[in-house]
Design a protein that fits this description.
CATH architecture of one domain: Orthogonal Bundle
Radius of gyration: 23 Å
Number of strands: 0
Mean pLDDT: 75
CATH superfamily of one domain: Dioxygenase LigAB, LigA subunit
Strand content: under 5%
Shape: globular
Number of helices: 11
CATH topology of one domain: Protocatechuate 4,5-dioxygenase, Chain A
Largest sheet: none
């Protein structure tokens, strides 16, 4: 079952990108996508405010773009992959933008990602509702038991397939 933004509100910087948020950020994302073309990047860099007039953005979206507030752009419906085009237009790598968004240096961000990313605990709510789910069949099973169960199912399918070919 999909979670709502309200369920994520106690986790700073976590936003649900659902149909409603996509609708809210449609024009913001179309602006960002326009930056894929060289001529548009040049026009934007020549006069950013004037270029933004091409898109029916809210004042909050315009301000977030002009001030390069990437987290705010996400709050306002921006998609991270589209907003990264704005950073690239400014000559920044995705790592640079992600470091800004997480409040860390590029070096610290890179180390964190090489070490496996943010801890799972940092991505879950305090209520426990958002703990990783387990299917009813696999609850309480060890990794070895789960692996053996998968192997057994795979062998069973192969045997059935072979029998059906024989007629």
């Amino acid at each position: 079952m999909a979670r709502t933004q309200q369920e994520y509100d106690d986790i700073p910087g976590t936003y649900v990108f659902d149909a409603e948020r996509a609708k809210e950020g449609y024009h913001l994302n179309m602006f960002c996508m326009s930056l894929m073309k060289d001529q548009n990047r040049k026009a934007f860099k020549a006069d950013e405010a004037k270029y933004l007039d091409r898109f029916p953005l809210t004042q909050e979206q315009r301000d977030a773009i002009l001030n390069r507030q990437y987290n705010r752009m996400l709050e306002l419906g921006g998609n991270i992959y589209f907003t990264a085009k704005l950073g690239a237009t400014d000559g920044h790598s995705f790592q640079h933008i992600a470091a800004i968004m997480t409040g860390s240096t590029q070096e610290d961000y890179a180390k964190m990602m090489l070490a496996g990313g943010r801890s799972v605990e940092g991505n879950r709510s305090r209520s426990g509702r958002d703990q990783p789910g387990k299917s009813a069949k696999s609850k309480g099973k060890s990794k070895k038991e789960k692996s053996e169960s998968k192997t057994s199912k795979s062998k069973s399918k192969s045997v059935k397939k072979a029998r059906s070919k024989r007629g």
